[in-house]
């Protein structure tokens, strides 16, 4: 099979590679780019462990061809924070014990990020509805929902602090 060239912006950095046209985005991220935070759970779009953002929208990377992401921007869990400064969602998942085995965590975090970009103060019903495409066989979801609500609170507080700092500087 003839290979094709792709150019995908991953976590702010352009990645170019020659790949087989049938390469899934999840495999491109893990095997070509070397970002292993995105998990392969089912390869059928059922579990959500492979969730990433494609141009800001949560997608299951096991059902997106890397070729479809050509010329687009992908954000993975590695792109949210740094080890020395975790993103509020990552901090909230740790503080609220929102994982046990951890396999689904990166997909949950990316879905949470997508949820909180739209609404930083979602109620439990909305969170549970938007998490329906992500499976966790360990936690029962209560801690995950609590973590997302807490992350929204942290993000709102950070925004308020930033606004106050801008006001002080002005």
The helix/strand series, from N terminus to C terminus, equals EEHEEEHHHH
CATH class of the largest domain: Mainly Alpha
CATH topology of the largest domain: DNA polymerase, domain 1
Taking pLDDT < 50 over at least 5 consecutive residues as the criterion, the unreliable ranges are: none
Structural class: alpha+beta
How is the biggest beta sheet arranged? Answer: 5 strands, mixed
Overall pLDDT score:
94
Task: Tell me about this structure.
The protein is α+β, with helices and mostly antiparallel strands. It folds into two domains: 4-79, Beta-grasp domain (Ubiquitin-like (UB roll)), CATH 3.10.20.30; 88-169, DNA polymerase, domain 1 (Orthogonal Bundle). 39% of the residues lie in helices and 15% in strands. The chain is built from five helices and five strands; from the N terminus they run ββαβββαααα. A five-stranded mixed β-sheet has the order 2-1-5-3-4, with helices on both faces. α2 (88-95) packs across α5. The protein is globular. The relative contact order is 0.14. The mean pLDDT is 94.
